[in-house]
Design goal:
single chain; mainly alpha; about 75% helix; extended
């Protein structure tokens, strides 16, 4: 559900940011804000950025001392993210039904 709502949240967030920017600064910089808003149209780029953020976030939370962000991207960062995702999926598969429902909602 969270991933399905991401495109809508991004578009609404860009729109709110544009309206706040316009309220604060008027018409100056309108083109740069419109270009930023247009970036949300690139669905493939959005998915790649989401994957990148998931990998960076997982690596920085799970193995920040062993794999600091200054060496990202690396094989170790990808291994940590894939290992975490695998363990998460195994944990969800082995969890009782009420726990799976709680996590998936």
């Amino acid at each position: 559900m969270l991933f399905a709502s991401l495109p809508i949240v991004c578009v609404v967030g860009y729109r709110v940011a544009y309206l706040l920017y316009w309220a604060a600064y008027g018409d100056r910089g309108r083109m740069s804000v419109l270009v930023t808003f247009a970036l949300a149209h690139n669905v493939w780029g959005d998915l790649v950025m989401l994957l990148h953020l998931l990998i960076v976030g997982t690596t920085s939370v799970v193995a920040n001392l062993a794999s600091p962000l200054r060496v990202y991207p690396s094989i170790g960062a990808y291994a940590v993210a894939i290992g975490f995702a695998g363990l998460l999926l195994i944990g969800l598969a082995a969890a009782p039904s009420p726990t799976r429902r709680l996590v998936s909602t």
